[in-house]
Write a structure and sequence with these properties.
Layout: H1 11-14, E1 16-17, E2 22-23, H2 28-38, E3 42-47, E4 50-56, H3 57-63, H4 78-81, E5 88-90, H5 95-105, E6 109-114, E7 117-123, H6 124-140
Parallel strand pairs: 2-3, 5-6
Antiparallel strand pairs: 1-7, 3-4, 6-7
């Protein structure tokens, strides 16, 4: 294999499959329970079967500020806290295009879509893992096969 034969992956091969979502009308406490029970940090927000936002661990931390009164945030609905501006990308998009857009938008996650449905999430953690895999492939390629 030569370095020119190393293919840049698409989102499909580097995303985290994502079967979990939360309804916009759910309480923040219900969303937190989903995130904890499945050890996830990004949760798509759905209303009428349409993605309307994404709830991140950081959003939850800000809403449940420990300096606020103890019951503050507990009655909030997901729609009150989630990010409404969502970066979505199609499952077959090349990784480099998605990474450039993430940097441009200063976004830490992307909802991966197929046929207008969320099929996964791609985060900065996934990006680091994909980059490490690509670098390993390059390092494994013998120097004399470099074109």
């Amino acid at each position: 294999m030569t370095r020119s034969e190393i293919k840049v992956p698409t989102l499909k091969s580097v995303m985290t499959p994502f079967p979990y979502a939360v309804e916009a009308e759910n309480t923040l406490s219900e969303a937190v329970e989903i995130m904890r029970s499945h050890n996830i940090h990004h949760l798509p927000v759905i209303s009428d079967e349409t993605v309307v936002g994404i709830l991140t661990e950081q959003d939850v931390k800000w809403a449940l500020d420990p300096l606020a009164p103890s019951d503050s945030g507990r009655d909030l609905q997901v729609k009150d806290v989630c990010r409404k501006e969502i970066f979505k990308a199609e499952i077959d998009q090349p990784l480099q295009a998605v990474l450039r857009e993430m940097v441009k938008l200063r976004n830490d996650c992307v909802l991966v879509m197929k046929n207008h449905r969320v099929v996964g999430v791609f985060t900065t953690t996934d990006a680091c893992s994909a980059l490490a895999d690509i670098i390993e492939k390059i390092e494994e390629t013998p120097e004399d096969s470099v074109a």
